[in-house]
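#struct-pred
JK: can someone run the complex with adenosine-5'-triphosphate? inputs below
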Amino acid sequence: MQTSAHLSGKEPRVVLSARGLSKSFGGFHAVKNVDIDVLDTQIHALIGPNGAGKTTVFNLLTKFLQPSSGRIELLGEDITKTAPDRVARKGLVRSFQISAVFPHLSVLDNVRVALQRPNGLATQFWQPLSALDRLNEQAEALIDRVGLHRERDAIAEDLSYGRKRVLEIATTLALDPRVLLLDEPMAGMGLEDVAMVAEIIKSVARDRAVLMVEHNLKIVSDICDHITVLQRGEILAQGDYATVSQDQRVRIAYMGTEEN
Ligand SMILES: Nc1ncnc2c1ncn2[C@@H]1O[C@H](COP(=O)(O)OP(=O)(O)OP(=O)(O)O)[C@@H](O)[C@H]1O
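RT: done, structure tokens with the ligand placed:
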């Protein structure tokens, strides 16, 4: 796939990297010696069978878990020992599950509340929602960007599952992350919502990096520039889809067959 950076002839730079990342739970090595580079303007997929260590890698990168060993850098800065809230403020943001959306607020109000944070209004949460009116223009632009304009005034809990996930992505984008981590963003969606979210992810990756855990290989092949395959906590293969899908070890480990 041609990213905007490729088209402009500029090599995308590494914005998030890990070296020798490992995590043990008791004597069990859930993640072993993982090296990963996430590049700006690229969509990077983390795939692998159940229990491969994908969620643990996400938790390590966002510092929800402290690594047993290894080093993590965000925008060239060592964040190995940085607390998760500071990592988020530095621009590495994970899209949370639907619980992050306020169910009784409208789509517009959810986005306006999310926009408070980058605008330094976080301590004014107790004020009436009308205090957020100056964020309306920005909120409308974000709502348009993710294609929720028709649902602008709908109450979040009345949205379909797919639209709730889109709203969740919008509230995460309100923080303007440099690196966006998405955990199975299309899980449980119908085909129409999958196609829409794929387009949203491609669009948001034009000016940031996206790292996503994804089980659906069709989605991975359609939108991801780079793929890291994990198995039993270790990297089995890395590269573009053509490279990893031709790898015999990936075929056996991930698909359980050398065929296809
Ligand atoms: N807190 C924990 N304590 C003990 N073992 C854990 C813990 N968290 C994860 N594990 C184990 O580490 C391994 C990797 O789990 P992880 O959830 O990272 O895999 P995954 O690739 O995300 O799997 P799935 O696709 O099923 O979500 C699994 O064997 C899991 O049981």
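RT: quick notes.
The pocket of adenosine-5'-triphosphate is lined by residues 25, 28, 30, 48, 50-56 (CB under 6 Å).
The domain at 1-91+180-260 is CATH 3.40.50.300 (Rossmann fold).
JK: thanks, will look after standup
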